[in-house]
Amino acid sequence: MRVHVALTPGEFPELALGGRAALVVDVLRATSLVVAAIKAGCARVIPVANAAAARERARALLPEPVLLAGERGGEPIDGFDLGNSPLDCTPESVGGRNILLTTTNGTAAMLKASEADAAAVAALTNLEAAALWALSTGRDLTVLCAGDRGSFSLEDAVCAGLLADRIVRAAAGVALSDAAQAARCLGTLYGTRLDRLRRDSGWARHLEVRARGADLDCCLRIDTSPVVPVLANGAITAGSGALTWPAAGADTRTGRPSGPGTNR
To answer: How far apart are CA 209 and CA 254, in angstroms?
Structure first.
């Protein structure tokens, strides 16, 4: 298995994803929201390019229950039902509903990932489940970091690196690209001290200043969700089937075997 990490969206136009699996990462906050929404029983999340496309698609889906969600520059979009906070995704608010989502960075990465043969959504909150999903596809993997307005995003690279590390520890013969190796090093550095991202990540500082500290508390946590949101035919839904972590897998932070019995 070969693993590559696209560290910035600038690489997306040149990426050939045919025949590969893809994982989208936008820790702060789009993929964390998607994981939370699917866990809370959302019917599906449909990524769209912009607010106008979201409103047009919502009209086309009627009379199905639809919520508009998203942000621009970190702020909710006028007239939308939800912003980009995973904390808004409760069973009461999103259960059984479709969410049309547009964000500054994350949804563009999701739309790119749809070019892959298999695609799913990853965050720190579902690291283990996402790594297992990637292994289960039997395909080479590309991790797409949504970045920050086209530029490098530290928290996305850390998440991608932790994914790469778990895959390497779980399977023999995994080959990492140089970018994946670099991300893995960042994952090793920050994996046991995610709180450092609150001050080292530019976007985390941006959210903190705007009183989004509770979102940071939610997003900068590892393995709080077992779900793998899978992207197919333009929509993200709950992945099917239970996956079991290989016995040889090791927790990135402790070096102990990972799995349901591990004390987290």
So the answer is: 32
